[in-house]
Amino acid sequence: MDANKKKAMQGRVKKTLDALERNGMNAVYVNDKEEALTLVKSLVPEGAYTATGGSVTLNELGIMDYLRSETGWHKEYRDAYNASFYLVSANAVTEHGELYEVDGTSNRVSAMLYGPEKVIVVAGINKLVPDLRSAVVRVKTEAAPANCVRLSYDTPCAKTGECASPCFDENHLGAVGCQTDGRICCGYVVFAKQKQKGRITVIIVGEELGY
Ligand code: SF4
Question: Tens digits of per-residue pLDDT, 177-206?
């Protein structure tokens, strides 16, 4: 990311980190990809029982390579519930300290909600949004279309670049979408105040990562 743009974002980053901490999550900012990988390696020891949710961000950072080669990484969705560390990204992180996640099979959101001892969420600075309304729009106009193209799913957003229902819908809280078999927006979860303080750690990386 351009240095001036990154500097200008620092106020929003701080606001977001403070809000995440108030919601019982650990929140850390790192400058770049290298720092992100170093931090993850320090948090997740070699040999640890790990699992992951599907994430372009984790691949881009080299985290998947580390987990597969140096830790006891489990691929099966059900194994994730007993993991010591579950690693994942976010579809959006709000300045109110919320994580917004939209999932197709819901393996990712379910493991984030309950099961693994620790959850580590790694998100590029491009995932920051002011509020939940913006988070919904972000998924419908950026994250989901790009992921549907990546996965070769025949959905409306893969063709037009936006959801069949692209706006925040007051009556459905953004949960209206397409009726195709390839729909990847099925479970909609907001992570707000955490009862288990410190179970979730959010790492914001000062670079554009993932969708
Ligand atoms: S509901 Fe369907 S069209 Fe809308 S973003 Fe999700 S996959 Fe795309």
Answer: 999 999 999 999 999 999 999 999 999 999
**Considering the entire predicted model, what is its pTM?**
0.96
What superfamily in CATH does domain 3-130+187-205 come from?
Answer: NagB/RpiA/CoA transferase-like (3.40.50.10420)
- Residue nearest (by alpha carbon) to ligand 1 atom 6: 185
Residue 151 dihedral angles phi and psi, to the nearest 5°? -90, 0
Query: Ligand 1 mean position to 141 CA, how many Å?
Result: 9
- Using CA positions, which residue lies closest to atom 4 of ligand 1? 163
Tell me the CA–centroid distance for residue 123 and ligand 1, in Å. 21
